[in-house]
Each structure stands twice: as C-alpha cells, then as structure tokens.
Design a protein that fits this description.
By secondary structure, the protein is an alpha+beta fold. Helix content is 43%, strand content 22%. It contains eight helices and nine strands.
Length: 256
C-alpha cells in the first residue's frame, strides 16, 4: 500500500484551533459494542480500516461556539473523526455505521494513499425509541487527490476553513459544513463549486441532487438495455428514451 495521506495536508484546510485537539485513538470494538453490526459490516471494519482517531472535539470549552438544543435535536459539540483506510471499497457503509454509533454530529475524514473524502450526517431524537439518536441526510463526498486537486476540489477545500463557518451555535456551524459537502457533490454535475443553489420553488437542493442521481441510474440502465437489444424498432425507442432522460438531467443539474 502507498503511503497514506499526511494528516496535516487535510487538516490545514480546516484550520481547527489547537485547543480542540484530542488525538485519541478509537478502537474498533467500540462499534461492535454500541451498534448491531452485520457480518459484512464486521468484515469492512476488520479489513478496510487501518486506524480510527478522534482528532478534534469542538465544544464550548475548546472553541467559541455555543451548544444547541430544540425539540428535535441536541448539538452540544461536534467531533472530527479521522479514519485511515486500507481500501476505499466499503467507505459508504463504514461512514453509515459510524454516524449511527456515535450520538454527536460527526465530521468524518477518510484518508487512503494520497486521497481524502469527507462525510457528515445530521442527528435528531428518535420518535420511535426513547433516548435513541437517528442519523439522517448522510453525505459522503467523492475522493480528492491532494497531490493534484482540480479547481472545483480546491474551491471546496478552501471553503472548509472553520473561520468562515457560523459560530452562533453548533447546529448552524454543522449545517454550514454539511452544506459545503452537498455543494461539492452538486459540483460533479454542474462543473462549478457554489454554495448557493439555483433552485426555485419548494424542492430543496438535496432533493434535486437525489433526483439527478435517480436520472443517472435510469440513464445507465437505458444504455445497458440499448447494448443488449437486438430489435431495431425497440433500439430506436430506447434511444429516444435515453435522450429524454439526458435532457431531464441537464435541466435538473442546471437548478442545483
């Protein structure tokens, strides 16, 4: 395996104060004890993860940001967890398990070789189970090669500096962080990193992005069907359907 991404090259972009530093190792058994792991999850943690470190804890005593609480959620702090991986293969599943297992809002920083990726998920109180926390709206970004980042990636990384994030309370702070990850995912389709959405109406940016993902799946399925189809008339129909789907994707992408 190639040398993993140096931590400094990732965290320099966030510019988190030293007062928030923790650097405490998190052992994998924590997730086995606090989460019902499937056999596939246990395999992912065993084979894919090299080391987990609780890198920073942002709380009122370490940074000038207040805790937040309302009827739906409680954000007393934000934890930054560093996950050094051996392979990217099951990163999405690992992120989902970690967000479920730790009740605080997390910024997960995944690193492997010379690349990094980020993940967030909002937390709220469960309506079905007392004292339980639900993770929702998880985002896992694409991988970024820190040796040769593209302009869109550089723009995204530059926006993560916590000085530019709201410091009123941790919900506002974390929401702004999640918005940046969402904007970066939208940039894959728009070719431009921008925090403000061009969306109009009631549909949120997240919903439009999800619709784009559904259209991309439909386009891939249509292309596969075209390759397999042997009847000329049916191929013509599929090609017409493909063009319509691609047009819808362009229109939806333009509103991200």
């Amino acid at each position: 395996m190639e040398e993993e991404t140096p931590k400094s090259s990732v965290y320099d972009y966030l510019a988190i104060p030293e007062s928030c530093g923790l650097g405490k190792r998190v052992f994998k058994k924590l997730f086995h004890e606090n989460t019902k792991l499937l056999a596939a999850d246990k395999k992912a943690f065993s084979e894919d993860i090299d080391r987990i470190t609780w890198e920073y804890t942002l709380k009122p005593s370490t940074i000038q940001i207040q805790s937040y609480e309302d009827e739906e959620r409680e954000y007393p702090e934000v934890a930054v967890i560093d996950v050094a991986l051996k392979t990217r293969r099951r990163t999405a599943r690992i992120a989902e398990v970690m967000h479920r297992a730790i009740p605080y809002p997390l910024l997960l920083v995944f690193r492997v070789e010379n690349c990094c990726a980020f993940s967030t998920a909002h937390k709220r109180f469960s309506q079905a189970e007392k004292d339980a926390i639900v993770a929702e709206n998880m985002i896992l970004t694409r991988w970024i090669d820190l040796n040769e980042p593209a302009k869109v990636q550089t723009d995204f990384l530059g926006s993560l500096n916590i000085v530019g994030l709201p410091h009123t309370h941790f919900y506002a702070f974390y929401s702004a962080l999640a918005d940046r990850l969402l904007a970066f995912e939208c940039a894959r389709l728009t070719g431009e990193y921008r925090l403000e959405s061009k969306a109009v109406g009631d549909q949120s940016r997240r919903e439009r992005l999800a619709a784009c993902h559904e259209l991309e799946v439909a386009i891939d399925d249509c292309k596969t069907a075209i390759k397999k189809e042997t009847q000329f008339n049916r191929k013509v129909e599929l090609n017409t359907e493909l063009k319509e789907l691609q047009s819808k994707l362009r229109d939806m992408s333009g509103m991200l």
